[in-house]
Write a structure and sequence with these properties.
By secondary structure, the protein is an all-beta fold. It is built from one helix and 25 strands.
């Protein structure tokens, strides 16, 4: 692949040595960055003003975090959706309770305040996952099924398009999105990443509507235009790049999570910062996160 003209390099801000760092979410209420380490069930709260990182544990794998309008967090955990408030974890909706071989994966809040998150098999069995939508009354709707690794998700600034990644497909799909009901239709493949370049993982959309896609096994976050053209790239000194989000007081800092799981001893020696939290200022601005109404 020819490098795009705008290629940047990210720096370590927290050498967290996460097994699978994921789900970075900027908290505009506390001016902190939340992120998780999925298999450890660790929920991290990073303070960029002093570099401190506070951790609490969910007691089961946790894959995504949403900022709750009424206070606390909404989480995608192994067993479904949960609320974390005042240090207390409370399940609000089970998902695939009978399928112990599956767990929740990446998720995000839509413009209507609903929390979306999908599932995958621990062993990545093809077609074992699905995408779910949690409503304010704790009702769970199945949106897509037959997925393998339900992953990155976000919406266009105008709220007309939802972008979604099933990592195993190696692509980003754009859907027409109904903001009132949360319904999606008219899927169209927008971006394709070839297997020899890595696999699309988490993503975020900036204020101009450009998509930033983390590339697992690709040591990069790529920036794509709304029509799917590759226009920029952030390089990292680690291969397993998992997700990204804009944060900071002016939303100009791109935070990037990474993973260390599955690396051989030689790879770990070559990638001492695998599992770290990275940051870069790419010269564009992100968007305030949607707050969850659950």
């Amino acid at each position: 692949m020819t490098r795009p003209p705008d290629t940047l390099v990210a720096d370590v801000v927290l050498d967290g040595h996460a097994e699978v760092g994921e789900g970075p979410t900027w908290d505009p209420l506390r001016q902190r960055l939340w992120w998780v380490d999925i298999p450890l069930g660790a929920i991290h709260r990073f303070d960029p003003t002093n570099g401190r990182d506070h951790v609490v544990y969910a007691g089961q794998p946790v894959s995504a975090v949403a900022i709750r309008q009424r206070g606390g967090l909404v989480l995608a955990v192994r067993d479904g959706f949960a609320v974390l408030d005042n240090g207390q974890l409370r399940m609000v909706a089970s998902v695939e309770a009978e399928r112990t071989e599956n767990r929740m994966n990446d998720g995000k809040v839509d413009p209507g305040g609903r929390f979306w998150a999908g599932t995958m098999a621990f062993d990545m069995t093809p077609g074992a996952g699905a995408l779910y939508r949690l409503h304010e009354d704790y009702r769970v709707a199945t949106v897509l099924s037959g997925l393998t690794i339900s992953n990155g998700i976000d919406w266009s600034p105008d709220g007309q398009t939802m972008y979604f990644i099933d990592s195993a497909r190696g692509s980003v799909t754009a859907f027409s999105y109904n903001g009132q009901t949360g319904a999606i239709k008219e899927p169209e493949t927008l971006i394709v990443i070839s297997p020899d370049e890595g696999m699309p993982d988490g993503m975020t959309v900036d204020s101009a509507g450009f998509l930033w896609v983390a590339v697992w096994a690709g040591a990069a976050v790529r920036r794509y235009s709304p029509d799917g053209a590759l226009v920029g790239e952030v390089r990292l000194p680690v291969s397993q790049v998992t997700s990204c989000v804009f944060g900071g007081p002016t939303l100009r800092d791109l935070y990037i999570t990474t993973a260390s799981t599955g690396l051989s001893p030689v790879q770990r020696a070559e990638q001492p910062h695998a599992g770290a939290l990275f940051r870069v200022r790419p010269g564009v601005v992100g968007r305030q996160p949607n707050l969850c109404q659950v």
